[in-house]
Recover the amino acids of this structure.
């Protein structure tokens, strides 16, 4: 059963990476046609909120008490993991090269490893450290070295985006189990859309949009087609699949699976925008996949290497109790037959 959940989590994590990665190629024509980053983020979050609000309520059986109990998690998820990450990323790429911003943002898996190291005061397993090195090396090859100047504010904003990604994985793992993934995502999008809308209304965040036709997958389409695509696929589906994967696999492995977004983004850009993948990018993709595989081989704490697959066999829940009771039982009298 655990093996099946692990496979499902990997599929969902890769699906989220593909959906997130495709979002850049879909949004790029909007930005080039005159959409401001704030307006683009507001549009994608609003579409996702409208798409998920009813399914989210159905998953909760229209009982909002679990959301109220998890209100601080929902608020942090909306403001940091959704709004903060998106706005910080777009603001950063306006000041420093996109490749530099991506490299900093996708240091999140390594940051989570270092955070666990500091909190537990125990070095990560060798497979995790080697996997981290391989993944970062692959990132450098896929994204490429950044050119141009390095603005301090841009670097700080990229760091904020990285923190937002870390929060996304941590909250996804620690969120109240009574709040289904689709409900957590829906509530986060609703709160995020309200906050972004208010910021745009008072002028704190520039909102500009063009309602002309834009290039779309080799053709010309109305502006609302890419808006719906990025809202439904690269936001609604991507976040729900990502949260589900986090709950099945944990924050660490899910964060490394999230690096697949970079690979998928390069592949989608190749097919949609004609940006060819070079040999170094292909090698970088293989290194990232190698890093993910190594992290997947991490053993649970206290589990010997020879017992890696023992927990894949279903065991009755009362077996451990019966074993403890046998160990604690006094020796049987020689005149009484032992009870098995």
């Amino acid at each position: 059963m655990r093996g099946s959940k692990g496979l499902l989590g990997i599929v969902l994590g890769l699906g989220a990476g593909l959906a997130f990665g495709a979002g850049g190629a879909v949004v790029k024509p909007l930005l080039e046609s005159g959409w401001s980053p704030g307006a683009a983020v507001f549009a994608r979050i609003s579409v996702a909120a409208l798409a998920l609000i009813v399914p989210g309520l159905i998953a909760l059986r229209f009982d909002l008490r679990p959301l109220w109990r998890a209100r601080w998690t929902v608020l942090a998820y909306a403001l940091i993991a959704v709004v903060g990450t998106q706005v910080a990323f777009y603001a950063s790429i306006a000041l420093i090269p996109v490749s530099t911003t991506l490299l900093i943002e996708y240091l999140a898996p390594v940051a989570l490893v270092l955070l666990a190291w500091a909190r537990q005061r125990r070095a990560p397993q060798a497979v995790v450290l080697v996997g981290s090195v391989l993944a970062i090396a692959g990132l450098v090859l896929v994204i490429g070295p950044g050119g141009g100047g390095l603005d301090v504010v841009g670097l700080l904003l990229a760091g904020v985006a990285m923190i937002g990604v870390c929060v996304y994985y941590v909250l996804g793992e620690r969120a109240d189990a009574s709040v289904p993934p689709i409900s957590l995502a829906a509530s986060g999008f609703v709160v995020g859309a309200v906050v972004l809308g208010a910021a745009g209304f008072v002028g704190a965040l520039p909102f500009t949009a063009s309602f002309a036709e834009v290039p779309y997958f080799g053709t010309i389409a109305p502006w609302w087609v890419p808006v719906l695509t990025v809202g439904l696929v690269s936001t609604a589906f991507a976040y729900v699949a990502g949260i589900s994967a986090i709950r099945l696999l944990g924050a660490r492995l899910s964060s490394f699976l999230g690096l697949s977004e970079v690979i998928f983004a390069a592949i989608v850009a190749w097919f949609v925008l004609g940006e060819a993948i070079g040999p170094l990018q292909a090698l970088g993709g293989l290194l990232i996949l190698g890093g993910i595989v190594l992290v997947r081989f991490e053993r649970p704490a206290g589990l010997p290497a020879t017992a890696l697959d023992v927990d894949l066999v279903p065991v009755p829940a009362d077996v451990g109790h019966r074993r403890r009771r046998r160990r604690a039982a006094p020796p049987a009298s020689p005149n009484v037959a032992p009870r098995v």
Notes: The two ends are 29 Å apart (CA to CA).
